[in-house]
Write a structure and sequence with these properties.
Helix content: over 70%
Number of helices: 14
Largest sheet: none
Number of domains: 1
Shape: globular
Low-confidence stretches: none
Distance between the termini: 32 Å
Mean pLDDT: 89
Number of strands: 0
Structural class: mainly alpha
Radius of gyration: 19 Å
Order of helices and strands: HHHHHHHHHHHHHH
Length: 319
């Protein structure tokens, strides 16, 4: 146990902080219980997908500023396809959304590799491109979500002993955890960490740097599209306007232990950080803090986290 805690001290600390935040929320709102936890988890679901997408690209040594726009494309595309194809076409619609997300991410990656322009510039430009694509798919909220698919993220797990667990948390664990587990155990996963740690050393070790970077962006794009899908399932309609997921995903990734220099980090820490940030916003709301002040506080927290992460990254580069 001591060895485990020493190795995973940051994630353990985040887990303790999350439990303390739950306790604080219960003190502020004594009625906060299973239904409240379910609501928080459902709200955190798209943020978790956005953070997972951001984490993978940062670990690969890049950055993905178009994550929110790709989520908008995934959300609108899924809403339109499910409305058009009906219940029978739900599974094909999911596959199309995942492929579309991977394609968007791959386009970003190819643009970065071929142009040799910094990731932050390329993905900033693609943020507007994918935002425009989302508006072409739907020029306003519309479409629909298949009822049985919506039910997957609503309520608690209907099994004895697990009735306290939100179904959204189970979906999050199965999808994000499954993708991450498969990636970490693959050669591609090792290559992503290698190019993020030291691109030159990775190249000399036989890693195909360009294709690996494109693959990292493609996986990130697929996760972003799934995040858009989860938002559609939560609201019941597709929304073409990108949500506030960019800054939140960067902040959660950094708070979760992903180094902005690349090559360091996992997925459990960033996901826990998503819940911590969501609970912080909920607590401010429960304390009847002015919504404008809440936005300022939330933005300040995110900015401070990202700046600290940036300072740590600069310090590591100077060593």
């Amino acid at each position: 146990m001591r060895r485990f805690l020493a190795r995973h001290y940051w994630v353990t600390g985040l887990a303790v902080l999350f439990v303390l935040m739950l306790g604080l929320t219960r003190i502020i709102q004594p009625g906060f219980g299973i239904s409240g936890l379910e609501s928080v988890t459902r709200a955190a679901l798209p943020y978790a997908f956005a953070t997972a997408a951001m984490s993978i690209t940062i670990i690969a040594g890049g950055i993905e500023l178009s994550v929110a726009s790709m989520m908008a494309v995934g959300g609108t595309l899924s809403a339109v396809l499910m409305a058009k194809w009906g219940v029978a076409g739900t599974v094909p619609a999911l596959l199309v959304v995942m492929l579309a997300g991977a394609a968007m991410g791959a386009v970003n990656g190819v643009a970065v590799v071929l142009s040799r322009v910094p990731d932050i510039v390329v993905t900033l430009a693609m943020m507007y491109v994918w935002g425009g694509v989302a508006l072409l798919i739907l020029n306003g909220p519309g479409g629909t979500a298949t009822p049985w698919l919506r039910e997957l993220i609503l309520g608690q797990v209907p099994l004895p002993g697990l009735r306290w667990l939100p179904q959204a948390a189970l979906v999050m664990a199965v999808v994000i955890g499954g993708i991450w587990w498969s990636l970490r155990r693959s050669k591609l996963g090792l290559s992503i960490y290698a190019i993020g740690s030291d691109q030159t050393a990775a190249f000399r070790s036989g890693v195909a740097v360009g294709p690996t970077r494109v693959a990292a962006y493609a996986i990130g794009g697929m996760l972003a599209a799934l995040g858009g899908l989860s938002l559609t399932l939560s609201t019941g309609v597709g929304e073409p306007i990108p949500g506030p997921y960019l800054m939140a995903s960067v902040a959660a990734a950094v708070l979760g232990g992903v180094a902005l220099t690349g090559g360091i980090g996992g997925i459990l820490g960033p996901v826990i950080a998503v819940f911590i940030l969501r609970l912080a916003r909920l607590d401010l709301t429960l304390m009847s803090v002015d919504p404008n002040v809440t936005t300022i506080v939330e933005g300040t927290i995110m900015a401070v986290v990202v700046m600290i992460g940036g300072l740590v990254a600069l310090r590591e580069k100077r060593r």
